[in-house]
Amino acid sequence: MLNVIIQIMVAFPLETEQGHGRVLVVYGAGVVAGGLGASVFEPTAMVGASAGVYCLLMSHIPHIVMNFQSLSHRYFRLVAVLLLCVSDVIYSIRHCLTKGNLQPRIGVAAHVSGAICGLLIGFIVYRGGEKTMAFRIARYAALLLYVAWIVATVVYNVEKKF
């Protein structure tokens, strides 16, 4: 339930500025990246919607960077994203140290994979800053890293089966 509430809060501003389709692509990419990351680093962990939520959350950063001049409340948004991330990292560390990451078990690999995916896929999918060479370089670098991650994790899983 908490994932759904955070997802709505995090996705709403992105949907109003980037459109439903782009945000859906980002969310879907995060779910895929989270599942693949968990399959490599935590194959026994169950993965839910949290990888997609982390992807949406972290995709705010490329959105803010690419549209910095035109966004209202840009500093507040940046601080809010960082605060959510830092507080969750602190909670996860505390949970792992005090409860041994049990009840509930946090799929750390899925969270991290979703977050990294959000940073990358945001530069690929979101609009803004298209006129600059720096944007084009960031977009192609992000695309290269994302594709490399997907290919590497798929190849790892295929090789693991044989």
Automatic annotation (TrEMBL):
It holds the Pfam family Rhomboid. GO terms for cellular component: membrane. The chain crosses the membrane at residues 21-41, 47-68, 75-94, 106-126, 138-158. Residues 1-127 form the Peptidase S54 rhomboid domain. Keywords: Membrane, Transmembrane, Transmembrane helix. It comes from the Eukaryota. It is found in: Membrane. InterPro entries: Peptidase_S54_rhomboid_dom (IPR022764), Rhomboid-like_sf (IPR035952), Rhomboid_IM_Serine_Proteases (IPR051739). It is a multi-pass membrane protein. One of its GO terms (molecular function) is serine-type endopeptidase activity. Its main location: membrane. Belongs to the peptidase S54 family. This is Protein rhomboid. It comes from Culex pipiens (House mosquito). The lineage of its organism: Eukaryota, Metazoa, Ecdysozoa, Arthropoda, Hexapoda.
